[in-house]
Write a structure and sequence with these properties.
Layout lengths: L4 E4 L5 H11 L3 H9 L5 H8 L15 H13 L3 E6 L3 H14 L4 E5 L12 H9 L2 E7 L6 H9 L3 E5 L13 E3 L15 H16 L4 H4 L2 H10 L6 H16 L3 H9 L8 H18 L2 H9 L3 H35 L2 H4 L3 E6 L6 H12 L3 E6 L4 E7 L6 H6 L7 E4 L3 E7 L3 H15 L8 E4 L1 E2 L7 H8 L13 E14 L5 E8 L7 E5 L6 H5 L4 E12 L2 E14 L5 E3 L5
Parallel strand pairs: 1-12, 2-3, 2-4, 4-5, 5-6, 7-8, 13-14, 16-18
Antiparallel strand pairs: 8-9, 9-11, 10-11, 14-15, 14-17, 15-16, 17-18, 18-19
Length: 583
Amino acid sequence: MSRPTWNIREVTDTAAIQRLRDEVGVQTDIAKMLYTRGITDFDSAKKFFRPSLDDLHDPFLMKDMDLAVDRLQRALGDGEKVLVYGDYDVDGTTSVALVFGFLKDLGQFDYYIPDRYAEGYGLSMQGIDFAAEHGFSLIITLDCGIRAVDKVAYARTKGIDLIICDHHLPGPEMPDAVAVLDPKRPDCPYPYKELCGCGVGFKFMQAFCLAGGADIRPLFDRLDLLAVSIAADIVPVTGENRILAHFGMQVLNSAPCTGIQVLLENANVKKELSISDAVFIIGPRINAAGRIASGKKAVELLISENVGEARDFAKQIAEYNTTRRELDKSVTEMAVEMVTSDSFYASSRSTVVWGDGWHKGVVGIVASRLIDTWYKPTIVLAQQDDGTLTGSARSVEGFDVHAAICECADLLDRFGGHTHAAGLSLRVEQVQTFRQRFEEIAAARITEEMTTPMLHIDAEIDLHRITAKFMALLKQFAPFGPGNMSPVFVTRGLKATDAALVGGDGTHLRFKAYSTHHAGYPMPCIAFKMAEFFVPLHEGQEFEMAYSIEENHWNGRSSLQLQVKDIRVVDRAGTVILPAPCL
């Protein structure tokens, strides 16, 4: 596993920190954490700590929103059949559940999720044919469609209009749809560009309510779906996303939809949920349906209003998740074997691996696992029966994987995505050429500093600073995510007691840390995948540690615990033995 470079955030404008500290009435280290998050005065701090739905942007600021609302209203007025079409991942299925669930009682609506294996990502010819055969004259796409120029043209030949709701980067040509809602359109003036697909669908429904004078509260009741989408799609939890995630988490913890309620019941989750829980507990289970069977199963769960029916769906999805974990392990092992046995990867700046028989549904997960080990932009491709390779790309900090893939467009059948993640497909005979060109692009752009992960540290503190009061203040920084990560601290001059290897395979380390400089109770710590530090900590060597602070819930009790991000053992002179000192 790649050891990170420590980057302790420094703020040179001490006067601004002091001014913010005095205005907000917090200690200096808290003021510094606010400042590095772009919170520079009392008003912005108030909005940060007290999000309000009143601060959501006017949805009609989005390009084509008036056209989209007018077309939907006309469809309802004329009794047209409308098909809500979404992708098969968490963002797509939550989008469909939110929009279809909100509209279904207003007219003739149905939904469609493409088959990952038979149709692939996004708007498909099969989906359009389904709409034509069943009399749908309007399709609303969610989390897809921005690059479906040929598909939209095909739909028009069938007499079908499209409203596209997407958040991916557009191609050189915009689809000829009735309306294209995408804040990343170059000509879109919408002030917040980082909405997820479900977020764009939500803004569409918000505009629909405002235009018709409808009660918007039932839409806000569905924010649990949007919170899950924001979490799972790893979009920045800043600006409007922060507001939506904040209130979505409130719904998730107080009155989630029946489907999520029974999914959590099936997973035996009884504690208050965080964004992290949405990422690691809810997201993988919803995703498992599309990876193993059909994303439609996830939508069925999320729109179900019958507890018994929902429990059946949740049980089925839990089985899919178990299968997904088994496939993930198998494909990861084969991908690791390919990397370790081919000398190409010993000096490469990127990783492109592929295999026949690899399950397409887990390639994105496997790419992330390979990055955890080698920290390079990674593409994992699964060979299909028709001679194509289809897969997912994941990136490292500072490298735009989507832009790199765009430069290989002539070798690809299709592609799309974001700066940090993308999907693509190509003919198997092109893969060696693609690997070489992608490597050349990576080698030209990845600097030496980018070859190890960066651990951003908010402040250096002593352990005695960690109290229930301090934790209560940190919790107000939530919800956490990109752009507002859970605060990370560093403490030096530590020793450990009660060090033990834990976990089924003994790869995790549990211990208690105490300061050699200040008296106080030892703090419980958990360090995942850090068994190599057991011996020096057990033998009483001094160390320094980067960590976040969390609440540990066990047997109905809650206590503070440090989740270790990295450890550095020091010698008697206080010099770091390995790895290199922090920046």
